[in-house]
Protein 1
Amino acid sequence: MKDLVSIKLDLKNTIVPMLWLCLLATAVESAEPLSKNSQVGTSEASPKAPAINWDAYPESTALPELLKLQNGSPVKSPEDWMKRRRPELQELIQREMFGYLPAPQPFTATVTKTVPDALAGKATLKEISLKFTQLPPEAPEIRLALWIPNRHPAGKIPVFLTLNYCGNANVTTDPHTTIHTDRFCSKKEWIGQRGGQADFWCVEQVIDRGYALATYHESDTKADKNEWNDGLFPYLKSDQVPAGSQPATIALWAWGLLRCVDQLAQEPQLDPRRICLLGHSRRGKTVLFAAAMDERIALVVPHQSGTGGMALSRENNQETVERINRVFPHWFCGEFKKFGGNEPRIPFDQHAVASLVAPRLLLDTEGDQDAWANFPRSLETLQAVNPVWKLLGKTGLVGSGLITSVTEIQPGKVGELLQLRLPEKHTLTKEFWTGILNYADLMLPE
Ligand code: GTR
């Protein structure tokens, strides 16, 4: 069956239009105008580009203060935080690190497939194509796959939304998911293959616990490579945005997730107050940024997100800013390149990104054998943002904020900020999902 749903975008919760106005007023001096050859993710300065004005980036080995406005005034109330400090930080992290999140786009949502007995009868699969009506017809659509449990407690259903890296059919061995082979995936053996990451996404486990699961393939919005002619970038870049602050790959992936949220919030069976985002590693960086930018996300799980995610950049003794920019020049915007080797000059740190999730739920899941994602520096991030949750009247951390077993997730033993560190490597497992679902059961709004 095919049905066509017109999407009315709820702009109430988005600060994007305001940010675009701020952007015009505050573009940094070092930004070049956008030219045809500008490479978003590269640091190649054009011969005419002015030198970086380092006076604008004073050195600070200490973490920049969160509860102080740029004009030096203290942040004293929830209103100071939500109305003044939060927008300042959102502006800063976009301009200097991720690039500006493009404004939302209207789309039509077409249900291209409905399978009422997917996953051996446990779930209804809906495949939904999001086609952007104000972009040229050749602009790619986002293909959202959504599994809704057929058995669940009465009432609206909470949902986990994820970003997958080789197509929706890769997420489960269930034969009903449509296989697409027309998008980029660096892991060639997974292209067109069913269930390559089934043990990772554990869809049945999520469904059995009464949660829906939704996912889209990141290459719908941007392939994971330093090329800028694919996906939606050519249609979403703007001449109004300086080249160095154009949205880079992570911002484009996040934008796609937020368009999926637009759709999930309209799904009659789903609970718009219980939309959770989960991403692994580079996609963990992505979900953290998405949740920082959009208050509709109730719970974010940046799983093993590391540098550019939950791990602090200053004195990072694992993956440095220089290294991440060199090896993955397309993840962050051009402005971020100047901070490689100059970390004390970053006018924020990753605690600023995480702080933007307040007062919502931030569950940082880590593996203690993951020697690259820097879980100790991620725990420091949680500790550094705790005063923001407290200011907003929340519990924040309980104790140090660290637990090492899923059985510790009990009433009174965890707060809105938590690191769950399991004896694992750089991967997602059933046990992690058990912890994540236990936490969601306990902490999401009723
Ligand atoms: C690594 C990268 C990390 C992390 C990881 C991943 O090579 O250095 O920042 O994102 O890839 O995404 O698996």
Note: The first helix runs from residue 16 to 26.
Protein 2
Amino acid sequence: MSQNHGQWTSRFSYVLAATGAAVGLGNIWKFPYIMGENGGGAFVLVYLVCIALIGIPVMMAEVMIGKFGRQTPARSAVLMAKASGRSSAWRVTGWGGVAAGFLILSFYVVIAGWAVAYTWYGFSGRFENQGAEQIGLLFTELNAGPWALMGWSGFIVLGTVLVVGKGLQKGLEKAVNLMMPILFVLLAIMVGYAAATGNFSEAVQFMFAADFSKLSWNGVLIALGHSFFTLSLASGIMMMYGAYLPDNTSLVKTSVYIAIMDTLVALMAGLAIFPIVFANGLPAGAGPGLIFQSLPIAFGQMPLGQLFGGSFFLMVVVAAFTSSIALIESSVAWLVENRGLSRWQASASAGFAIWLASLLTVFSLTGAEWSVVSLWGDIRISFFDLLDYITANIMLPLGGLIIAVFASWAVSEEISRRTLDTTPALYRLWQLSLRFVAPVAIVAVFLNLIGVLNL
Ligand code: PFF
Ligand code: NA
């Protein structure tokens, strides 16, 4: 594959592209609102532990598989299994990712569509001097009917298809190169502004004082699932990127960089949002609309708020866009490989399918009656919530579990040691985490949840 698609031109651009895939709505939109819904500090602590002990080692395993095979995910996994004398059934590590990536993207584009709308609102001055109530209304109006949502998300789908269809990395690399630093600076400005004008101490208290009585087992599962979601794990992506890994690059070090960058952006987003949430008496558990109902209040009051507000949401769009491209890539690569389509045909078909699937989320948001499904008992849940729950909290941790077992038990030590290419001590640590810590933790969380739910 490296002959067809090329390698990243340098270690730096590899890190940037992988960071671009990692940093996205998960950090800026999802992390703050699920933290808000799950009580703050204890959730953050569990999330950080999951990133360090499970997320980073699994990321290394995925990059290792891609680096070894230099093929699309399923094929790389098969090559590595075969080389270790194992069954080619381990290709399941590739398939699960394609399915998860597709389902995630179906709601991801709709939320990215919100950000496109808010970029427009910001630059056109819709936030100016608006209080919490009017800002809340703006969000309600956006979700009143399907057409606006379909249009805004259609934008993202179209853009993704165009970039992925061309199969280019050059353009993408440049865009990420430029936008990631701007996003970082804008976030820092927002944190500064929130610290100066908002209720910063309450926000810090909320985010970093761990009160475990506020955290349920479901909350623990959400933290675990989010650590996979935010690092783009178990979706084939990191295997894909590993296949492009430049030769002189340490996959261990770069994985740690990527995870640190991703975590920093998430924490900064929390520190930008919660001071404003608390200062305006908004509920921390407001749900998916949290960032859209809080930050615009600040933009509406700060000097140059029009410029800052528009630019901020533009950066969110860019961050979401670089992740969307990564998300669609697994479906596209699968179609090219297994259905013999050209890249253009593959990305257009995947894009159309995703746009259709996104309607489930669109109608969930507008509150269409049919968009709510009944599960067992009297649990009723919208398609949007269902998609989010099944992907992040079930498919990704399960995929991570399989990858951990594959990389640490099935792959021969000789091969993993050589491909990982690190010090003996770090290798042991990595192996220990994947052999025992990750599987035990993931299974324990699942079992506890099932026990608690009394299924
Ligand atoms: N990591 C992305 C985010 O935090 O927004 C979401 C994501 C991208 C998940 C790519 C999975 C993926 F393959
Ligand atoms: Na992320």
Note: The CA atoms of residues 372 and 431 lie 43 Å apart.
